[in-house]
Amino acid sequence: MNHLLRSHAPITEEGWQQLDDEAKERLVPALAARKLVDFGGPQGWDHSATNLGRTDPVEAAEGLEARRRKVLPLVELRAPFKISRDDLMDAARGAVDVDLAPLDEAVRQVALCENLAVFHGWSAAGITGITEASPHDAIELGEAYANYPSRVAKAVEVLLTDGISGPYGLALGPDGYTGVVETTEHGGLVVFDHLRQILGGPIVWAPGVEGAVVVSLRGGDFLFESGQDLSIGYDHHDADRVALYLEETFTFRVATPEAAVAMTP
Asked: How much is the pLDDT for 187?
């Protein structure tokens, strides 16, 4: 038994499988940050902090020297939701149209929080985001999607000038992503394809991102550390509904602030 207490829930193996499959299907496109940063782990539920390799001096008895090692604690993130027991029974009978909207909303909230933490920071959790750490001036995207390639090319030039090699990736907020996909330049070239040629890497639909962020994908610059990866756990139930939650532990740190350029909407 582990802390998720899944064996205590009135849910069959088939029901758990359907819940897990639904969560995975929704999480894969929504977890934008993981597509553009280094992912470490999962290290397990009992992993509590990341070693930063640094120390702070502390007072000690006369004749002694002491230093306290610095760590970055992981944050526990949980999104509670409830599923109808009737729907879970239908899933056990083989129904494929079970109402899992509460799980979908939990996935949306967790993915949004994780993306925000990585790209824009989460001060309460001690996480500095990529755009907060970047020393480069933000580049304005403007309103015309046809002009995005020239703006992104400028961001790539900034990184190259600083000695930051590619390939590069682009995180685009939902509105910007839709506009880029739907727009063609003079001559008929699709803006999305032009951007990929400039970057040499992926363009990622990124809920939570304000504007866009260009990052180097050379590795070692942006470090996401997972303790327990996203999992569904059991809380309690009554005659009508089962209370569950989607949970993870993680932290994030920027090793090379120069390896990203923010782009304002």
From this structure: 55
pLDDT exceeds cutoff 70 at 160: yes
Query: Helix 191-199 and helix 174-182: axis angle, to 10°?
Result: 110
CA distances 113 to 31, 75, 77, 78, 214, Å, are 10, 12, 9, 10, 20
Among residues 20, 83, 112, 90, the alpha carbon closest in space to that of 244 is found at 83
The pTM assigned to this predicted structure is 0.92
3-state secondary structure the chain: CCCCCHHHCCCCHHHHHHHHHHHHHHHHHHCCHHHCCEEECCCCCCCCEEEEEEEEEECCCCCCCEEEEEEEECEEEEEEEEEEHHHHHHHHCCCCCCCCHHHHHHHHHHHHHHHHHHHHCEHHHCECCHHHHCCCCCEECCCCHHHHHHHHHHHHHHHHHCCCCCCEEEEECHHHHHHHHHCECCCCCEHHHHHHHHHCCCEEECCCCCCEEEEECCCCCEEEEECCCCEEEEEEECCCEEEEEEEEEEEEEECCHHHEEEEEC
**Residue 205 — φ and ψ, nearest 5°?**
-70, 120
Structure confidence at residue 112 (pLDDT): 97
Contact 251, 124 (CB under 8 A): no
Is 220's pLDDT higher than 80? yes
Residue with the two structure tokens 């755009």: 131
Mean of pLDDT values over 28-48:
96
* Dist. CA 261–CA 151, nearest whole Å: 11
Whole-number pLDDT of residue 91 = 82
